[in-house]
Specification:
5-stranded parallel sheet, two-stranded antiparallel sheet, 250 residues
């Protein structure tokens, strides 16, 4: 695709993996949404790849829709670990209200990374990963052949999404570090909300958490714990280089 931008948001690599597969197929540039300051006008074609959070959009993606050039044509690929819950319809509504032209929408099931409540069995994660390439290829084939899809009409869970989003900051307050922490600063560096800082020699979590869980999953020492308990599994998509998450790839 000529002058294509593949915009993505990812905390554990699922969206980045889909973005890399998309780039392999169509070319273009992969751009991490929180690092972008333009309005998309320099690109002829835009694909947005994002996870579903609480039946809705991650905050950086929601804000991104508001800055894109009005009338811009976009293709959306969402991925989810549990249920879509009408998140595709909600995304379509928000994009339309932002003055954007949604050309097609697709959704892919990927391994769950919201492991604060429960960790899916390893065999289930591996099963989803095993079939991911086939399902991603089907989406890319449909895009290539202009077989664009849209979500069926129906109710969204917008009110639940709004309620959950308003409480995401609480998650950050429930994080802490244990004795494994070596103060390497990685959590500070990768946090898209700039919610973590080193203060008086201690890692401090503030009140701007976006619930992406990047710090929790990607701490090299697994030193970040939730509610003072360390009994949850971490997840990073095994098919990508973890250090590429949050980076642009041209």
């Amino acid at each position: 695709m000529k002058n294509l931008a593949i915009f993505y948001f990812s905390s554990t690599g699922n969206s980045l993996y889909i973005a890399k597969k998309t780039k392999e197929r169509f070319g273009g540039s992969i751009i991490y949404i929180p690092s972008y300051n333009g309005n998309g006008s320099e690109f002829e074609k835009i694909i947005i790849i994002t996870p579903i959070y609480s039946f809705g959009l991650p905050i950086p993606v929601l804000e991104f829709l508001g800055i894109l050039e009005k009338g811009k044509e976009i293709i959306i690929i969402q991925n989810y670990g549990g249920m879509k819950g009408g998140a595709d319809r909600l995304f379509l509504d928000y994009a339309t209200k932002s003055g954007l032209c949604v050309k097609g929408m697709f959704a892919l099931k990927m391994p769950e990374n919201y492991t604060l409540v429960m960790s899916p069995p390893t065999f289930y994660k591996n099963k989803i990963l095993k079939s991911a390439d086939r399902r991603i290829k089907k989406v890319l084939d449909d895009i290539s052949n202009s077989k664009f899809k849209f979500p069926k009409k129906g109710k969204t869970k917008e009110q639940l999404y709004i309620k959950n989003k308003a409480n995401w900051h609480i998650i950050g307050k429930r994080f802490s570090v244990n004795e494994k922490c070596i103060k390497c600063g990685k959590c500070i560096q990768i946090c898209p909300a700039q919610n973590i800082e080193l203060k008086n020699g201690k890692i401090v979590f503030k009140d701007k958490c976006m619930a992406c869980l990047g710090c929790f999953h990607r701490c090299p020492q697994k030193a970040i714990i939730y509610k003072n308990k360390d009994n949850k599994k971490r997840y990073i998509n095994p098919n990508i280089n973890e250090n590429e998450i949050g980076k642009n790839i041209f």
